[in-house]
């Protein structure tokens, strides 16, 4: 494999960081690399809030479900889907704009995710560890108020960045045949492949925890599908001006 594929294959989430700051010029280089990601129709429907204020970092750690590494990492970024800037640009250019379309929500969310992954890859290429923080959506209204986000902008997730102070194992992924399907959707072997993967993940958890975690992939999924996960997001997004049509 070439060095880029090798680097991608070694991704881990880092949650313990050295007390060492990332140089500002490096952080800006990571964000510029993020801007080079594919973007639908060149809309670039994202904004990043670099949270520097320690009190705001501590508050975000609480709002995200008590994740202390948000406050402890070198830098914390909140990636926001932003349809305000492109919509207003089109309006100033003379367009009779339509707001609140579900497709606009999808475009902004996808643009933001693509951009963030480029930032992650750029950071990891320089020895910086990252951890995505989906817990930002636990309390999106409070997060939006704290960050002073306007209408048509919403926080998608956060990202911790810093020099790693841990060396976790790479977490296994599903077997390729489970996700790579030829010509049309085929699931005849999915149950078998998932069973194999469950065995792999059980071994991984046993080794990682010294035998203290007796679980697998399917077991870990249960909480996601036995309760309504973040049911507040639908009304929150509508209040933000997204997904009304």
Automatic annotation (TrEMBL):
Record InterPro entries: Flavin_OxRdtase_Frp (IPR016446), Nitroreductase (IPR029479), Nitroreductase-like (IPR000415)
Domain of life of the organism encoding this protein: Bacteria
Transmembrane segments: none
Keyword annotations of the record: Flavoprotein, FMN, NADP, Oxidoreductase
Pfam families, per the entry: Nitroreductase
Domain Nitroreductase residue range list: 10-163
PANTHER family: NADPH-DEPENDENT OXIDOREDUCTASE (PTHR43425:SF3), OXYGEN-INSENSITIVE NADPH NITROREDUCTASE (PTHR43425)
Family, per entry: Belongs to the flavin oxidoreductase frp family.
Official protein name in the record: Oxygen-insensitive NADPH nitroreductase
Organism: Marinobacter xestospongiae
Higher taxonomy: Bacteria, Pseudomonadati, Pseudomonadota, Gammaproteobacteria, Pseudomonadales
Gene behind the chain: nfsA
């Amino acid at each position: 494999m070439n060095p880029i594929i090798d680097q991608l294959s070694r991704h881990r989430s880092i949650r313990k960081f050295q007390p060492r700051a990332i140089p500002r010029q490096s952080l800006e280089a990571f964000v510029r690399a993020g801007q080079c990601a594919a973007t639908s129709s060149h809309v670039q429907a994202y904004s990043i809030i670099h949270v520097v204020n320690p009190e705001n970092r501590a508050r975000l750690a609480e709002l995200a479900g008590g994740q202390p590494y948000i406050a402890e990492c070198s830098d914390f970024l909140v990636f926001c889907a932003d349809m305000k800037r492109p919509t207003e640009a089109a309006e100033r250019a003379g367009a009779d704009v339509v707001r609140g379309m579900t497709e606009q929500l999808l475009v902004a969310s996808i643009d933001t995710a693509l951009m963030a992954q480029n930032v992650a890859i750029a950071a990891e290429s320089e020895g910086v560890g990252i951890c995505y923080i989906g817990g930002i959506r636990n309390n999106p209204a409070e997060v939006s108020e704290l960050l002073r986000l306007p209408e048509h902008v919403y926080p998608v997730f956060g990202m911790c960045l810093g020099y790693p102070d841990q060396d976790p194992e790479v977490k296994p992924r599903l077997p390729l045949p489970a996700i790579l399907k030829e010509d049309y959707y085929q699931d005849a072997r999915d149950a078998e492949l998932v069973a194999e993967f469950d065995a792999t993940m059980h071994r991984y958890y046993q080794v990682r925890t010294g035998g203290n975690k007796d679980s697998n992939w399917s077991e870990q999924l249960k909480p996601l599908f036995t309760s309504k996960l973040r049911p507040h997001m639908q009304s929150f997004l509508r209040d933000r001006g997204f997904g009304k049509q």
